[in-house]
Description:
Blueprint: H1 3-17, H2 28-33, E1 41-45, H3 51-58, E2 62-67, H4 70-83, E3 87-91, E4 103-109, H5 115-127, E5 129-140, H6 144-147, H7 161-168, E6 173-183, E7 197-206
Parallel strand pairs: 1-2, 1-4, 2-3, 4-5
Antiparallel strand pairs: 5-7, 6-7
The structure holds S-adenosylmethionine.
Amino acid sequence: MNSDQWDARYRDARTASGDSLWVAEAPLRFQQVLADVPPGSALDLATGDGRTALWLAGVGWDTTAVDFSGEALVTARTRAAERGANVHWIQGDVTDWEPGRTFDLVTIGYLHLPREAMAAVLKRAAGWLADGGRLLVLGHDVRNVDVGAPGPRDPGVLYTPEILREAVGEVLVILECETVERDGSADAEVPDAPAHVALDTLLHAQKD
Ligand SMILES: C[S@@+](CC[C@H](N)C(=O)[O-])C[C@H]1O[C@@H](n2cnc3c(N)ncnc32)[C@H](O)[C@@H]1O
């Protein structure tokens, strides 16, 4: 989907419910993996309405967040103002945006692009890590389709551990790369999702 289509989705969600497409809480996996990591500088790519960026800022990360949907960022800024959170919001296309600096952490949650474009984004994100910096990626696993949980259905944009590992395995140390279960009743992506178990792919990698 292009930025106009994403804009329409975020705008429609705001009109319909006064809120957003996604739940307000950051993915539980991100919270668990980062629980013992001391905060530094963070970049949340394809931040949407900023649920991960807002959580990161709330636990002490100096956070920058990028999305190409201006409408998503309207919701993100509103949420930040409500919470008194300080996030540097940037409207940009992750396939060509350049930060011009490094970060201690780059997070990517549920960004699903065609395989080559996704691999290119992952490689670029790996290149923006400071020494010791971490890349955390979470998205729908291709096997999610088989379990019937919500999410994209096109296998060409879905993750497998092999795809994520191959994209960054030569430049980063892989700490974790696997298919993980997500309990949709405690850790849904969309509000009011029916109870379900979803399958995500998690990548946690570090620059030496
Ligand atoms: C499924 S949402 C996930 C949002 C957020 N990461 C989360 O976990 O709630 C995917 C997001 O990716 C953004 N996106 C898709 N392609 C993009 C691109 N090329 N550049 C920047 N953002 C993009 C969309 O605007 C949308 O907000």
